[in-house]
Design a protein that fits this description.
alpha+beta; six-stranded mixed beta barrel; four-stranded mixed sheet
């Protein structure tokens, strides 16, 4: 009995983390919407492309004049309607999962009613649920939103359970999850990132000291360093606006206004892309959305992680100051399940 209770708690924790920068649905059917925080350079038209809607529809929902433009940090409500919100089992390509956060005593049937009577079988398959039981604070996929996703903080998302959350749709819908990743990799093609990786592998063999020996070793040794180069610094040229490092600099005034913290950390499983420069974290004292710079003092490597939620109150998490998505392991050069680290984040005093 105790074993099954603990398993339920752990599953709830991983599903809850599945909202890596989750598109969290708000409101109740038929008035469902998402909240988007305007970033530098965004326009009504880029929001329209990102969420598969006419810019006029978004402006009308917010009772705003399109001629006035958008101000940085402004919260904009994105309507979810028949034009951009899909709840069929085969959602198709070019979509991203939209999540609902389970409240206390809420049932799967209540979620089904609140979200336009979305078929229960679809919800079970998207989230890999074997029954109708749901855990408080878990994140459940209740549909998919259309759009390019290029104006969204993150189109890829899910923790160890994300494979459940994201892979389920993949099995039923070959591309719902792949498309978001393709979207982010397109900027790579346009941004010349592909050229960089290809030049480095070619640039190293030309060193002319390893053309022959590298033939046998290049397969493993040389491909791995290539992956670690971008992640060890927490930078992602292929991700629009430089991943989370730019947000960290914006929050801290380029590192001038920071609070530092030292102590033990640990990992949680996720499907965040290794080398994307976008990692995720759980932390007990900073607000959700805060970017934390995490440094391994033994290697000097750092990554930038966005805080999703507080660390679950479990015995295994006692005394931890942070939990990081496991995609950051290689970037920090750490193999242990628990590690010592140094944190820097916005001074909230």
């Amino acid at each position: 009995m105790l074993k099954s209770v603990m398993l339920g708690v752990l599953m709830a924790g991983t599903i809850r983390v599945a909202a890596q920068d989750t598109l969290l649905v708000q409101g109740a059917s038929p008035d469902l919407y998402l909240t988007h925080s305007v970033k530098k350079g965004e326009t009504w038209y880029s929001l329209g492309r990102a969420y598969g809607l006419s810019p006029k529809e978004i402006a009308a929902r917010n009772k705003m004049d399109m001629a006035a433009g958008l101000s940085l940090g402004k919260s904009v409500l994105i309507p979810l309607n028949k034009n951009n919100f899909v709840q069929t089992k085969s959602a198709g390509a070019g979509v991203r999962p939209v999540y609902h956060r389970v409240t206390e005593k809420e049932t799967l049937y209540r979620i089904h009613v609140n979200y336009g009577k979305v078929p229960l079988d679809n919800v079970r398959e998207w989230n890999r649920l074997s029954g109708d039981g749901v855990q408080k604070d878990a994140f459940l996929i209740v549909g998919y939103v259309k759009g390019s996703g290029q104006s969204v903080v993150l189109p890829t998302a899910s923790a160890s359970t994300p494979p459940p959350a994201t892979e389920a749709p993949v099995a039923a819908v070959p591309k719902p999850v792949e498309k978001p990743q393709v979207v982010e990799s397109k900027p790579v093609v346009a941004a010349s990132q592909p050229a960089a990786p290809e030049n480095k592998p070619v640039a190293k063999p030309p060193v002319e000291n390893k053309p022959v020996s590298s033939n046998s070793q290049t397969a493993a040794p040389e491909s791995k360093p290539a992956e670690k180069v971008p992640t060890s610094l927490g930078r992602t040229p292929e991700v629009p606006e430089g991943g989370f490092e730019g947000m960290f600099n914006q929050q801290t005034g380029n590192g001038r206004d920071v609070t530092k913290e030292k102590g033990p950390g640990s990992w949680f499983k996720s499907n965040a892309v290794v080398g994307s420069g976008k990692y995720y974290a759980l932390h007990n004292s900073v607000p959700r959305g805060t970017i934390v710079k995490v440094t391994n003092p033994l290697t000097g490597r750092s990554v930038y992680a966005k805080v999703l939620d507080a660390i679950p109150q479990l015995k295994a998490n006692a005394n931890l100051i942070i939990k990081l998505s496991d995609a950051a392991q290689d970037a920090l050069g750490i193999s242990e399940s628990r590690f010592y680290c140094e944190l820097s984040y916005e001074d909230l005093k």
